[in-house]
Amino acid sequence: MLEVTPFGEGWVLEYEGGGLPAAVPGCVHTDLLAAGVIPDPFLGRNETGVAWVGRRDWTYTTGLSAPSGHERTDLVFDGLDTAAEITLDGRLLGRTRNMHRSYRFDVTGLEGRLAVRFASAYTEAAAVRDRLGERPAAYAEPYQYLRKMACSFGWDWGPTLVTAGIWRPVRLEHWSTARIARVRPVVTVRQALGVVELRVDVERTRGGAGLAVAVRVGGQEARAPVEGTGAVVRVEVPDVRLWWPRGYGEQSLYDVELTLLHEDRVLDSWRRRIGFRTVELDRRPDEHGTGFTLAVNGERLFARGVNWIPDDVFPSRVTRDRYRERLGRAAEAGVDLVRVWGGGLYESEDFYDACDELGLLVWQDFPFACAAYPEEQPLRGEVEAEARENVVRLMPHPSLALWNGNNENLWGFRDWGWEEPLGGESWGEGYYLGLLPRVVAELDPTRPYTAGSPWSGSWERHPNDPAHGTHHSWEVWNRADYAEYRAEVPRFVAEFGWQAPPAYATLRRALPGEELAADSPGMLHHQKADDGNGKLRRGLEPHFAFPDGDFDRWHYLTQVNQARAVAAGIEHWRAHWPVCAGTVVWQLNDCWPVTSWAAIDGDGREKPLWHELRRLYADRLLTLQVRERGLVLAAVNQAARAWNGDLALRRMTVDGVLVGRALLPLAAGARAVAVVDVPRGLRPEGPAEFLVADARGGLRALYFPAPDREIPYPKPEFEVTVAPGAVTVTARTLVRDLLLQADRLDPAARADRGLVTLLPGERVTIGVSGWETPDVAAARAALYCVEPAR
Questions:
Q1: Which residues contact 110 (CB under 8 A, 6 or more apart)?
Q2: Side-chain half-sphere CA neighbours of 65 within 13 A
Q3: E strands in 506-642
Q4: What is the CA radius of gyration of the chain?
Q5: Whole-number Å distance between alpha carbons of 112 and 27
């Protein structure tokens, strides 16, 4: 039987003529940080002071001695970041140049000093650029010239911390006769009959041995001989329970165990979990353009999505528990699709296991983003090798629903001024429209592939045409107010978003000793977007009087504006289902403490946006919108049952006077949207009036016809009481967008809700965890709401 020996202990990082203890998996930065050589690059402006780390070569060493009674011993690296030379007592074992691949070296009978020498990623990139020529990109860093996590070179939300190291586990594998080299499970289901066809590749130490493979799944067994170095074994499982995305059914999973046999002696085994489900992508043309609708088990769905970036700029620090916690927060917010963005990684098994269990569909980008990528060697061979390995590695996961060729590169070629400087040189089109779809069709034929995001499906149309395929909505935020989201109905919005700073406690930890201001040195350093603070200001001013010199108000109002901006888009687009079939918010998470588009900040604290997503992505959503025919109420019902009942509408003044009311019938079918015209007599007139719509179950929609800066709000008045685990607020006036910033009570404190608007006389109880000393004065100081314009 194949034996595995973990090989993560005893490694040393060479430094200044000596050595530092090295954690494997890990990277140079984390080892230097643990040894006290560098300061924490996440704090203050330390990032700039450690830039030298990414420009040096680094060497890891350890002793290798692997006596074994087996015929073969392999040294296996699951991940090397990135350009490395591996030697044993000076003898070359191999060279690597791809962070996204694993590597295997025969070390049978060998021992001595094992060294893994990493060249600076800058050095490797420069060598490729000199050989293949310049290629344009969205950023000045050379990430397009090597197969490495692009965002380690910095992004408009991330620091420039160019890593090197043994970033995934290392092990020794001892085996005899043969081992399982690769298993490709093709899982299909039709009329409750599940079929698992496993295509198995075998590596032998010698020919001639009679081998077989046996598989067990769902109580069914099958066996097949190995012919040469391959075998195909098929199992039929009757009456299978389907795997569904969350909100549509159960996440039924089945254990698959495959064994490699020699005369009934087990040589090796392979174990995974699978799920039986179908996934299709409907891209048929219609009267609105070209659709982009995911269907799982025949059920067409509006995808409630978030974009995922690497959860740490040092990805070896992301544990199984951290994946589970972060993705659990996504599920708790109503998310059913997570897009793994192309400037990051193929994530670890722990990520996809969590998605399988939580019912989160995964849209997986191949790692290409915002640049023209050369298609010549040495990159082309690496791209194909990594694609083949990772397609097969990830295909057992039922959560994996879609392969995507790249992020914004097709769009970039058309709109970002690339074509002229390229002068006919390769830029990646051959990957996205040729190599990658061929690999997916060959290896993983049960899943759809799309060439890019955004992509309209044809060069005959603009790549980012909202009427065709996927669309990225970035005019809003960069140049336009979020009210412009309502100007169009894209078929699928794969990226859109609005910035806000992280939680107060996150800033206090990240910027120790700094007097916080929107433009203080640390705040500006932790704002990576081009003119980010200027866009925050320009996005705030149409809605609120800008709070010059008042950091706490700026912090609160920019977080409110983020939540409102995303709400404007999602409410509008969900109300236009099935023309629009999905929204994928940019972004769920952060990789360090930073002002960004994230709903959960770099310290894991939820912004008001995260709480707002719980409302926006709930199965049932009420929204009041202005359309060509006037003010309407849309009832969005993504539940499996019809939504019937009454809608209570109240036209009110901001001083609390009831102007008019009505009770309207509500009837929204399952997975459907019902639109009701608001009677003319209930439509607010002028900035002093607003409309409230309530439905059973606590669902509410509000409509204010004027921006906040024009509304004559009364001075907010409310009472506050506290009890262990709770803060209760009773409104005496209209209180708009009340927010308890729980982390101001204690850095460990969390609130169970975000922004809430209270009418006069209404009360809300906010659950608070992690606050051990309840105090009314402290609670009141941590409460913020919209105030009258000054």
A1: 64, 66, 73, 88
A2: 3
A3: 582-585, 620-627, 630-637
A4: 28
A5: 23
CB-based contacts of 62: which residues, under 8 Å, 6+ apart?
7, 10, 11, 12, 113, 114
d(CA 739, CA 667): 33
pLDDT of 328: 98
Helix (H, G, I), strand (E, B) or coil at 446: coil
Q: Judge whether 152 and 139 are in contact, CB under 8 Å.
A: no
List the structure tokens of 382: 């690496």
Sorting pLDDT into bands at 50, 70 and 90, what band is 743?
very high
CA separation, residue 548 to residues 504, 555, 584, 739 (Å): 18, 11, 33, 21
Residue 48's CB: how many other CB atoms inside 10 A? 11
Side chain identity, residue 299: E
363, 404 Cβ separation under 8 angstroms = yes
Q: Say how many CA atoms lie within 13 Å of 294 toward its Cβ.
A: 31
In angstroms, the CA 175 to CA 169 distance is 19
Nearest of 60, 44, 82, 42 to residue 162 by alpha carbon: 82
Cα–Cα distance list, 715 to 438, 493, 656, 692 (Å)? 63, 39, 12, 20
> CA-CA distance, 211 to 517, in Å (whole number)?
69
Query: Which parts of 452-550 fold into alpha helices (H)?
Result: 475-478, 504-510, 521-525, 532-540
CB count in 10 Å sphere of residue 515 = 9
Fill in the DSSP letter of residue 432: I
> Which of 723, 571, 556, 710 lies closest to 633 in space, CA to CA?
571
List of E strands, 205-278: 211-217, 220-225, 230-237, 254-262, 265-274
CA 224/CA 213 separation, integer angstroms: 5
Check if the beta carbon of residue 428 is closer than 8 Å to that of residue 373.
Answer: yes
Helices within 681-749 (DSSP H only): none
Order of strands, sheet of 735-740, starting from the edge strand that comes earlier in the sequence: 756-758, 735-740, 783-784
Cα–Cα distance measured from residue 736 to residue 711, given in angstroms and rounded to the nearest whole number: 11
- d(Cα 93, Cα 409) in Å, to the nearest integer? 36
Structure tokens at 777: 């004065």
Name the region of 247 (left: φ>0; alpha: ψ -120 to 50; beta: rest).
left
Judged by phi (left if over 0) then psi (alpha if -120 to 50, else beta), residue 102 lies in: beta
* DSSP 8-state secondary structure symbol assigned to residue 485: G
Q: Nearest 5°: phi and psi at 605?
A: -90, 140
Q: Which of 347, 408, 606, 787 is catalytic?
A: 408
User: Which percentage of the chain shows pLDDT scores above 90?
Assistant: 98
pLDDT tens track for 395-433: 999 999 999 999 999 999 999 999 999 999 999 999 999
* Residue 54 DSSP SS3: helix
Residue that the structure tokens 């495959």 belong to: 258
> Which tokens go with 312?
């740490």
The whole-angstrom distance between residue 561's C-alpha and the CA centroid of its chain comes to 22
| Distance (Å, whole) CA 366 – CA 385 | 12
Euclidean distance between CA atoms 406 and 365, whole angstroms: 6
How far is it, in rounded angstroms, from Cα 667 to Cα 272? 44
> What local confidence, expressed as pLDDT, does residue 264 receive?
87
List 112's β-bridge partners, or say none.
Answer: 64
453 vs 446: CA distance, rounded Å = 20
- What is d(CA 212, CA 258) in angstroms, rounded to the nearest whole number? 10
Cβ neighbours around 603 below 10 Å, total: 18
Q: Report the distance separating Cα 248 and Cα 250, nearest Å.
A: 7
Q: Does residue 790 carry a pLDDT above 80?
A: no
Q: Hey, what are 383's tokens? A: 């791209």
Question: Catalytic site residue 408?
Answer: yes
Task: Tell me how far apart the alpha carbons of residues 23 and 303 are, in angstroms, rounded to a whole number.
Answer: 40
Of 35, 32, 13, 34, residue with least CA distance to 22: 13
Q: Please name the amino acid found at residue 9.
A: E
Q: How far apart are CA 513 and CA 499, in angstroms?
A: 24
Of 457, 462, 343, the C-alpha closest to 407 is 343
